[in-house]
User: What shape does this take?
Amino acid sequence: MAARGLAGVVRIGSVASGVSSGVLSRMLHQFRISHGDVRIEVVAMETPRQFEALVSGEIDVGIVRPWRQHPAGIVATIVQTECLLVAMAEDHALAASGHVSVRDLKDQRFIAPHFDDDTGFSEVLTALGVAGGFVPFLEHRVHDFIAAISLASAGYGVVVVPESMRNFTQPGICYRPIADFEYPCHLALAGRRRELSPAVRAFVKESLALFTGRALSDPA
Assistant: This one.
């Protein structure tokens, strides 16, 4: 039954994987059942922009890629962990195999979602290069995974993506696991440490109970 006497608005930012993984829809479904009188606003936003928007008050909560250190007053809790895949054109030479190895990627042209040089998804490419003993060649830097996958499907290079992005259908694209590279890719729910809105606090509480069974906190 919907909660009575609690109205207001919850403004939510989300990276693309928050949608493709189903994390956002599960949070919204749960919250609608118990708080149907609260208005929900959702905006697509990459992680650095979400942290800025949380600090400024433009959004109330965000589904983000967690950083090692978050802005002052912002806390985040991991809600999902995924493995990584390589997306490439269906006619790419590596697509003939059911998987790829790190060494297979040594001479590939990479398409990199350009979030943040030090704390964004580029850390994945750095770790991949370390594992394979090479420096990844960044052919294209783009804004998000959708643009990166579109370029990959057209043959402009390969892109390392979270597993849930395979739910994004794009003609000409295929996905392959990396057999010898394990790197956890996290999604986190971020919010303000001192949140005043009862509606926002309720959304955070229910969402974290759904995925973790605990309250919003800094990652361990």
User: Anything to note?
Assistant: Strands lie at 9-14, 39-44, 61-64, 74-82, 84-89, 109-113, 137-142, 159-162, 173-177, 185-192. The chain has a mean pLDDT of 90. The chain is about 30% helix and 25% strand. The chain has two domains: 9-81+184-210, 84-177.
